[in-house]
Amino acid sequence: MPSLLGIDNGLTVTKAVIFDADGSQLSVARRRVPQLMPHARWVERDMAGLWQATADAVREAIAGCGRPAGDIKAVAATAHGDGLYLLDANRRPLGPGILSLDSRASAIVERWSQDRVFDEALALTGQAPQVSAPATLLAWLKENDPDCYGRIAHVLSCKDWLRFCLTGTIGTDRTEASTSFTDFRTQTYAPEAMRIFGLDDLFDLLPPVAHSADIVGHVTAEAAEMTGLDKGTPVACGLHDVTASALGMGGHEEGTLSIIAGTYSINEVVSLEPRVDRRWLCRNAIDPSRWNSMAISPASTANYDWFLDTFCRSEQDETDASGGSIHQLLADEIDAALKKPSTILFHPYLFGSPYGSVASGSFVGLHGWHNRGDMLKAVLEGIVFNHRTHVEALRGRFAVREIRLTGGGSRNPAFVQMFADALNAPVIVTSTDEAAAFGAALCAGTAVGLFSTPQQGARQVGRTARQYQPVPAASAVSNERFSLYCRIAEALRPQWPEIEKLAQQDIEGTA
After folding, report:
1. Most buried among 184, 398, 444, 499, by the most CB within 10 A?
2. Residue 322: other Cβ atoms inside 10 A
3. Other CB atoms closer than 10 Å to residue 323's CB: what's the count?
4. Considering the entire predicted model, what is its pTM?
């Protein structure tokens, strides 16, 4: 049976996953990719290091699948959306790649929100400018690093960079093209969008657009040497990881609300007509005349990871050394906390929020008798509540017949149950552990004729699903807590700018 390779690059880990054509997972390999934070609000990564880590993961996945590389009939990549990966005229990286957690351009977004840019961008592109969107980051470079800006020859996303490394070809797909510069009506690049952002001179540097399941190149000799893939293996265009995750769990369909609880809080619905609102991004779906409305914020499990890195580092080091799991180690603490009431509420705004980058995270209601488990429970609940904020916006405008959940958090039954209770609706979790990589593999399989469309492929090899039902009593408690969570956030809203000023005062005080 032929196999397919899906590459999934997130914000901290790059993965290579090999699937059978029937959807079964043959092997997976992962590599951590260090984040660089040279200044406050800057989150970057070395582009060459990313490619090397990805190539190493691919080689390991091939070695572990028990089959020769020649059985892999096609490859496709997905990766974090937004952010910025630039090449110069020699097709070399123009500095580090910028991740979608980066918020260096927050002042530009704030300025744009006070003038014409927000309204004009929303009216043309179907989305208000985000702090990590390509348009915003390019505008920041123009103002703050004109030398770098003047040397830009190719404007890429993360997965486009991986495609270039595999094939030597430059381009993007429909889902990625719509992150800043397309007219939501025509779903194609709009010169007027560049004018709105003051980037007219870059229009010709945007990458050509193909369908996610189009073959856009073949593995080069150099890439084959690095990855262990056969030279000449077809490479499909790939897609934004948000869309790939929905596709991989069977949720890139009308009537399904897909939730990805990963680094970002992702909540999305496919529709047959565009619907524009400041509360979500109206972007291209995989196919023409389909739109993907995404209500997002960088405020999901990145908060949980931060807590582990900050307060559980010694346990993490011990479990890593022994081959254990820090999540399993903490499970008893969290389960004990879930069984008792708590005054703690957590706003998961450490890296961003639905209120913009000026918001900050907070524990409220913390007392001396609370322990680490109580705080972890509050972190998980806060993540769920942030998703609910986005989900409620979408459910108010789109017909939703089912809700599907994926992401690292979906592996924890207690966490999924919190979603079902908070949303007061059944939540479906499929057995696809690597949904984004599987979505990329579905595009690869379609490119070589194994599936008629990526969506048909997802239905054809549909994964076993488990449905979590809301518990009425737990939903009632969750609803009360969510109401208070929202009221506290609104009360803090006017104070967040003042809180942010304290950081500048501290800097000035120590200068």
Report:
1. 444
2. 8
3. 6
4. 0.90
Query: Rounded CA gap, 103 and 112, in Å?
Result: 15
Crossing angle of helices 372-395/413-423, nearest 10°? 40
**Paired sense of beta strands 265-271 and 281-284, if any:** unpaired
Report CA 162 to chain centroid distance, whole Å. Answer: 16
Q: Are 184 and 237 in contact (CB under 8 A)?
A: no
Give which of 124, 128, 135, 134 is closest to 113, Cα–Cα.
128
Task: Read off the DSSP letter of residue 343.
Answer: -
- Using CA atoms, how far apart are residues 54 and 45, in angstroms rounded to an integer? 13
Q: How far is CA 490 from CA 128, 131, 171, 347, 481, in A?
A: 21, 21, 42, 11, 14
| Contact indicator for 132, 171 with CB cutoff of 8 Å | no
Contact between 235 and 229 under an 8 Å Cβ cutoff? The reply is no
Neighbouring C-beta atoms of residue 155, cutoff 10 Å: 24
DSSP 200: G
φ, ψ for residue 73, nearest 5 deg? -90, -20
The pair phi, psi for residue 498, each rounded to 5°, is: -70, -40
In whole angstroms, how far apart are CA 375 and each of 334, 378, 474?
Answer: 9, 5, 19
Which SS3 state, helix, strand or coil, does residue 313 take? Answer: helix
Q: What is the C-alpha to C-alpha distance for residues 128 and 133, in angstroms, rounded to an integer?
A: 10
47, 91, 151, 159 from 95: Cα distances, Å: 8, 12, 11, 17
Mean pLDDT of 218-224: 98
Q: Is 339 exposed, middle or buried (0-12, 13-18, 19+ CB in 10 A)?
A: exposed
Tell me the per-residue pLDDT of 236-246, one tens digit each, with 9 for 90 and over: 999 999 999 99
* pLDDT at residue 109 tops 80: yes
Whether the Cβ atoms of residue 478 and residue 421 lie closer than 8 Å to each other: yes
Instruction: Tell the residue number behind the tokens 């599936």, with chain if given.
Output: 451
Which amino acid is it at 404? R
Can you tell me whether residue 72 is helix, strand or coil?
strand
The pair of structure tokens assigned to 357 is 């980058």
- Specify whether the CB–CB gap between 344 and 374 falls below 8 A: yes
Which residue matches tokens 């582990």? Answer: 308
Helices (H) and strands (E) in the chain, counts: 19, 24
